[in-house]
Amino acid sequence: MALFLLSVLLLCLGYLIYGAVVEKVFDIRPNHQTPAVTYADGVDYIPLSVWRVFLIQFLNIAGLGPVFGAILGALYGPVCLLWIVFGSIFAGGVHDYLSGMISMCYRGRTLSYFVEIFLGRRFCVAFLVVLIVLLLIVGSIFAKTPAMMLSSLIGMDFVWWLLIIFGYYFLATILPIDKIVGRLYPLFAAALLLATVLLLFALLGKGYDFYPDLHTVNQNPNGQPIFPLMFITIACGALSGFHATQSPMMARCLVNEKYGRPVFYGAMILEGVVALVWATLSIAFFHGTSGLNEALGAGGNAGKVVADVSEGLLGVYGKFLTVGSIVLLAITSGDTALRSARLSLADFFKVKQQKLLNRLVLSLIIFALAMGLAFIDLNKIWLYFGWTNQMLATIMLWIGALYLKHKKRLYQIAMLPAMFMTSVCGTYFAYSKLMLAQSLDVSIVIGVAIMLFVTGLFAFLSAKA
Asked: Phi and psi for 27 in degrees, rounded to 5?
């Protein structure tokens, strides 16, 4: 238990100390009017209280990642805690803070707009296509997964649950952000945090050994290497590119730049705590990585692990609370993924969103595609999601570094994690059987070579700017 408490303490200190450093480097303007005030439109630009924005941001970025990703990452043993803690502090927190604060400096614009400014129009077009496809897949998967879980937990046919969820998605996408998201998300976030705390205390009360085999060596029962796989597996809860699609939505609701640290950096740290809890639960409840691997089964069913852990620790009613909160996690990230797709297209094509008709046209296109994806097998495509997601995070970190260097600030806070993640993504691209399928040694060389090339390109672009 001491390791768990130390990990939580480090995350808290990371927020207090390194978060303050990042904020100072960015050089906030507390007296500057934010987009929420300057461009208030009653739809997407709406001033909200800081605690409400914080809870919405936390729920938006969480999704299934800090639960399912942490469960699968726990197969590597307690070493996964190192990535969750230090990844959240030095990579994820920086990534989320920069994506939110840079957005506030550019009228609350979305990620594709940053890409166009710093990397050019041509790259932006290709990037936007990948981004929209990614958001559509997230929206589709995060509708299917809770629909299956609800069908198993409560009954009623899967298709009916899917239609209900998509109906909710549509309303949440076109209505002003304070009507559904602003009112319900803080309650949903509270339910998730309650379930997380209850599970942790139940684990402690029943006397489980938190880490039965406390070593920092690779304990993966399948022999999978820590580098690069663990850094792709654990995304939300350490570093996730999906967060860069969510932060601009809250950048349109904050009334002061001084709230950026608690909302953007702080929500990432809280997500890291949730990931810590689920990684610990997974290792402790199944008495080590071998037991966890057996519980996951051949398909790596993290949803089954959630159900087993919650029922084993909290009973049937606790299972309903926990699974219900996980379902809400998926749904709330799915709808904001599709809302982000609408905003990204609106920014790119310069379609103003105050008029309901404009929102309806974009939303109908998005939902037609997302619902179509929901009825086909996305399992093979989903296998590429982890790598694509971390590539997205890497691009955002490089953009953050370009922005800071252009402003003559300490750009290394973004460049160093960007370099590391470039080597991770490059190595994974070479090593994965879905891609080049090279040996690990060769893959690492390729990954480092890609990292050096991109770093050189960064130096060229930044000097040119």
From this structure: 65, 75
What does the longest C-alpha to C-alpha distance in the chain come to? 61
Residue 276: both structure tokens together: 């810590």
Give first-to-last CA distance, the chain, whole Å.
50
Q: Spell 318-357 as b/e; 16+ CB within 10 A means b.
A: bbbbbbbbbbbbbbbbbbbbbbbbbbbbbbbeeeebeeee
User: What are the Cα distances from residue 367, in Å, to 135, 167, 240, 360?
Assistant: 11, 10, 24, 10
**What is the C-alpha separation between 387 and 429, in angstroms, rounded?**
8
The residues, any chain, with a CB within 8 Å of residue 129's CB and separated by 6 or more, are: none
pLDDT digit string, tens, across residues 82-113: 999 999 999 999 999 999 999 999 999 998 88
Radius of gyration of the chain (CA): 21
Integer Cα distance of 224 and 204 in angstroms: 30
Q: Please, what's the b/e burial string for 219-238 (b: 16 or more CB within 10 A of its CB; e: otherwise)?
A: bbbeeeebbbbbbbbbbbbb
CATH number of 2-385: 1.20.1740.10
Split at pLDDT 50, 70, 90, the class of 465 is low
Name the nearest CA neighbour of 372 among 144, 174, 130, 129. Answer: 144
SS3 category, 49 = coil
Whether the CB-CB separation of 100 and 263 falls below 8 Å is answered with: yes
Which position has the token pair 């400014």?
Answer: 117
Per-residue pLDDT, 99: 97
Q: How far apart, in whole angstroms, are the C-alpha atoms of residue 47 and residue 176?
A: 12
Residue 288 DSSP code = S
169-194 confidence digits (pLDDT tens): 999 999 999 999 898 888 888 888 88
